[in-house]
Each structure stands twice: as structure tokens, then as C-alpha cells.
Specification:
Elements: E1 8-13, H1 28-42, E2 47-52, H2 70-93, E3 99-103, E4 112-113, H3 116-124, E5 128-132, H4 142-152, E6 157-162, E7 167-168, E8 180-181, E9 183-185, H5 186-191, H6 199-208, E10 212-216, H7 222-227, E11 234-237
Parallel strand pairs: 1-2, 1-6, 2-5, 3-4, 3-5, 6-10, 9-11
Antiparallel strand pairs: 7-8, 10-11
């Protein structure tokens, strides 16, 4: 097994990564597969933190179509991420890894409140830290939360797990002629409106020089290969200096 290139990474998981073939909810097999991938890189000495979405249970942006107030819907979405965080924590700890779940909304009976210094201390002690409830604020996505937490804990790389193998000029599932990018700058992603992450998340990473690697989560071993330095998916970063 090769030595890791990165010492600390933040993995951004969508809720869909945990739902399996049923199209809704939490699938134990899917959660276990993700947990095993994370355990592999943790065993290499990589410091790992995770931001998890909630789209497999409830997505705040869908609230308008249900007649819900947007703020109420966003809080419901945050609660969904906490459910996913608990499931992922359970799967990781069943594999022998000490894990902490921190939430941006106080929920003391089941998780720690998010405290930056405490999160960093957990990472220093070799624990995996899961961040749930987004930023704790409506109108902000879990992509924005991932960028913010990556900056706060000084992650060297933000891994954006998706169901496609990188960033394309258009949706490759709908447009067979879409072109895949091996690398792209933050500004190009923003100017072209590419669906890497939301604009707030990309801007935060750009201002703080946090590279984003977009990759296919469902190709077994991709996370390990990425932390070993293998070129997979698409890198979104600063323009190379000439």
C-alpha cells in the first residue's frame, strides 16, 4: 500500500450515496460500503472528516413544491443529515474506528455541538469526525458546509463524491457528447455554471486555496487511490502558475 499524499482530507458525501438501490432512505449495505472505504484511508494514517447530505431523506430545496416555508424546509433537511450522520457513525464504529458526530444544531443527547477546536482535537487523536446539519443556517447547502469545514479544520483536499467520474461540460447522463474535464479552475467552474458545487462553496475554496477533487464514489477503491495521489476524476483548483 502506497504512502498517502494527503494528511488531512474532507469527504463530502451526498445523502444519495447512502440510499442504495431503493431510491429512498438509508441502505445498510450502501452505508457499510462507504464506511469500509473510509476505514481503509484512515488505517493509512490519513486524518478524515466527513460532511454528509440528506437528499436521500429530505431535501430542503424541494420544500417549495410541498407548500413549505423555505426556512422550515431547510431545517428539515438539516435533520435528515443528522440521521445519515448517525448511520455512518454506527457503521464506522462497528469497524473499530473511533468516531465523533458533530452537529451545527445543538442536539446534545445524540451528538456533540460543532466546536472547531474540539473537532481538530478529535482529528489529532485519530478519530473520524462527521459534520452534520450543514452550517446550521437555512439557504446554505451542505456543499457550502463542506467548504467551510474544510477551511476551518485545515484540510488539504476536499473530495466531492458523486455518481459520475468527474466534471463535464453538460450532464453526461443526458448528453452523450458532454466533454469531461481533467482539471478546471475555480473561476472557469463559476463562469461556466458547471455543477461542481454551489457558487458559495466554490468561492470559499477559491479564496482559501482548497482544491476540490470530484470523483466517482461507486468505483471501489477510488478514495484510497486519490489519497495516494492517483489522478482520478476532475481537480478544481487555482490556475497553474506560469
Amino acid at each position: 500500500m502506497a504512502e498517502p499524499v494527503y494528511k488531512r482530507i474532507l469527504l463530502k458525501l451526498s445523502g444519495e450515496a447512502l440510499m442504495g438501490p431503493e431510491g429512498y432512505g438509508i441502505d445498510p449495505t450502501a452505508v457499510g460500503t462507504v464506511a469500509q472505504e473510509v476505514v481503509e484511508i484512515h488505517s493509512m494514517g490519513v486524518s478524515v472528516c466527513i460532511v454528509v447530505g440528506g437528499g436521500n431523506i429530505f431535501r430542503g430545496a424541494l420544500g417549495d413544491g410541498m407548500g413549505l416555508d423555505r426556512v422550515t424546509a431547510d431545517y428539515m433537511g438539516m435533520l435528515a443529515t443528522i440521521m445519515n450522520g448517525l448511520a455512518l457513525q454506527d457503521a464506522l464504529e462497528k469497524r473499530g474506528v473511533s468516531t465523533r458526530l458533530q452537529t451545527a444544531i445543538a442536539m446534545d443527547a445524540i451528538a456533540e455541538p460543532y466546536i472547531r477546536r474540539r473537532a481538530i482535537r478529535h482529528l489529532e487523536k485519530g478519530r473520524i469526525v462527521i459534520f452534520a446539519a450543514g452550517t446550521g443556517n437555512p439557504y446554505f447547502t451542505t456543499d457550502s458546509a463542506a467548504a467551510l469545514r474544510a477551511i476551518e479544520v485545515k484540510a488539504e483536499l476536499l473530495l466531492k463524491a458523486t455518481k459520475v467520474d468527474g466534471v463535464y461540460s453538460a450532464d453526461p447522463l443526458k448528453n452523450p457528447g458532454a466533454r469531461k474535464y481533467d482539471s478546471i479552475t475555480y473561476l472557469e467552474a463559476l463562469e461556466q455554471g458547471l455543477r461542481v458545487m454551489d457558487a458559495t462553496a466554490i468561492s470559499l475554496c477559491m479564496e482559501n486555496h482548497i482544491p476540490i477533487r470530484v470523483f466517482d464514489l461507486f468505483a471501489r477503491g477510488n478514495i484510497r487511490r486519490l489519497v495516494e495521489g492517483e489522478i482520478i476524476g476532475t481537480i478544481v483548483a487555482d490556475a497553474p502558475r506560469g
